[in-house]
Amino acid sequence: MKQKVLKKQQNSKKCLVCGLKNDLGLKASFYETDMNELIAIFNPLEEHQSYPGRLHGGIAGAILDETIGRAIMIQDDTIWGVTVELNIKYKKPIPLDEELRVVGRITKDSKRLFEGTGEILLPDGEIAATAWGKYMKMPIDKIADFNEDEQEWRIVSSKNEPTEIEV
Ligand SMILES: CCCCCCCCCCCCCC(=O)SCCNC(=O)CCNC(=O)[C@H](O)C(C)(C)COP(=O)(O)OP(=O)(O)OC[C@H]1O[C@@H](n2cnc3c(N)ncnc32)[C@H](O)[C@@H]1OP(=O)(O)O
Description:
- The chain has a single domain, classed as Roll (Thiol Ester Dehydrase, Chain A).
- Helices cover 11% and strands 37% of the residues.
- It is built from 2 helices and 8 strands.
- Strand 2 (29-33) and strand 3 form a beta hairpin.
- The protein starts with a strand and ends with a strand.
- Tetradecanoyl-COA binds at residues 12, 15, 65-66, 69-70, 81-85, 113, 134, 136, 151, 153.
- It comes from Desulfosporosinus acidiphilus (strain DSM 22704 / JCM 16185 / SJ4).
- InterPro entries: HotDog_dom_sf, THEM4/THEM5_acyl-CoA_thioest, Thioestr_dom.
């Protein structure tokens, strides 16, 4: 099924998942879609391996965590979540050096907490890992000394941004 891209989300400077100036990071891009889901696209490198040729499970957890944690920003981009629980099921080995898609959505939202689920998809669309996470909503100034400009928290568009993503 194709999902229509409505908006790209911000990247940052040094985050392991979204930092564009983190040489060892995933440099993932995040897209909000017309299905109220968030889709991450990234290319894991050799540096992200566990066994040769296989993505490290912790890295798979990191991209799932951030995709679910950012999905809350579809409805309100001023809500920041810190992960309080994360459960992952690894179903298939995840390859390196190939473009991968991760889908996340919010399943429960209350005043102080939200929950969501997500999946990492293999290039052929098969589900390689699933996750459920719970997050506490916190004001950004209680999480970190955060300055948008210093952290380069901004939407970075390239020439070939997708308008639709197959999931
Ligand atoms: C430049 C930026 C780049 C990055 C951008 C990324 C975008 C976003 C990406 C996001 C993705 C990546 C995100 C990351 O990677 S975030 C990094 C990983 N996560 C953390 O670092 C969180 C660490 N934990 C804490 O800081 C504290 O434990 C917090 C602040 C969460 C609570 O400690 P605090 O001492 O303040 O609170 P409390 O213990 O008195 O509890 C307070 C209340 O909360 C309830 N409670 C607590 N835990 C749970 C639970 N598990 N289920 C249900 N409820 C829970 C508790 O019952 C109590 O309720 P009540 O009794 O008052 O009713």
